[in-house]
Amino acid sequence: MIRPIAGGSGSVTGIEVALPHPRTSETPPLTRLLENERLLAAVLLAPTVVLLGLFIAYPFVMGVWLALSSTSVGNPGTFIGVQNFVKAWNDSIFRTAFWNTTFYTFWATIFKLALGMWLALLLNRHFRGKRLVRASMLLPFIIPTVLSTFAWRWMFDPTFSVLNWVLYQTGFIGDHWWSVGVTKLPFLSDGTYALWCAIVVNTWRGMPFFAITLLAGLQTISPDLHEAASLDGANAWHRFRHVTWPLLKPVTIVVVVFSIIQTFSDFQLIYVLTGGGPANSTHLIATYAYQIGVASGLLGEGAAVSLCMFPVLLAVVWFQLRYLRRLEGA
Asked: Count of alpha carbons within 13 Å of 261, Cβ hemisphere only?
């Protein structure tokens, strides 16, 4: 760049000085990519979208297609509409499985919430060995479901049941006037007993999840609120009802919904503990769908049975979102 410099009096005018030309630096492609927020967001979300599409969206779409077709093992099948759903609804075993699933989910969730809340309130206090108790409490949740259920199945075994032995040795069953000659309880050989045994095992396994989550919510509540309520004359029950519970309600709703989803679609526990027996009396929707779709090879009918869980779980999630939105607006 050439720029003229004006001289003073007695100096030579019109002197031109060459100045260095400013260089324009180019932005590297990686920098331009990082500065473009939309492009960067698309790149970061792409792996997640691909994984969700492969492992959630594609199986769900295929499940819907199978439920609307007559597909079986070795037979591609044809489109038959909702005939599989009508056949499932007219099936007495399916209606039993649907009732068992609702009954199983309701009582297991109630017990897990009650015992988990009690355990969380207990662990929220200061006592010696609290860390050890917290760590040991996670054992039922950490142990694989199949392994722990096999242990429970051995304890409920009609021949080698340790529970029957304990009840007999303590006098609760046996040749006594109050036991009516009962020497052992049919834990897994009677449908009613077997379903309640499954509820007990599910409660034992799911209670730590409730306790840890509710304990995390309890630790966010300021102790000053309880001290102020105590000064106003509130006892322990009133402090829980009017201070703890309202502040813990959002966390409780979320953990209950997660528990309902997991319990309603439970498969491993029932499959290992009872296998749906005796006489199909403890089948859940998931285990019955497996029996029809995989064991019997009727893929279309099995997919229709399994898809019957979708409306129920969708209604549960919708209720959760609606209720949480109402709590946030209150």
From this structure: 15
Cβ–Cβ under 8 Å, residues 306 and 293: yes
Q: Domain span at residue 317?
A: 92-284+309-329
The secondary structure of 204-243 as a DSSP string is: HHHHHHHHHHHHHHHTTS-HHHHHHHHHTT--HHHHIIII
Quote the strand ranges of the chain, DSSP E.
2-5, 15-18
> Of 48 and 172, which is predicted with more confidence?
48
Tens digits of residue pLDDT in 48-59? 999 999 999 999
CA 292, chain centre distance (Å): 25
Angle subtended at Cα 241 by Cα 239 and Cα 223, rounded to the nearest 5 degrees: 35
Distance between CA atoms of 130 and 136, rounded to whole angstroms?
Answer: 10
What is the spatial distance between Cα 279 and Cα 189, in angstroms, rounded to a whole number? 10
The CATH number covering residue 251 comes to 1.10.3720.10
Q: Quick one: 179 exposed, middle or buried, by C-beta within 10 A (0-12, 13-18, 19+)? A: middle
110 in a structural domain: yes
The answer to whether the beta carbons of residues 104 and 266 sit under 8 Å apart is yes
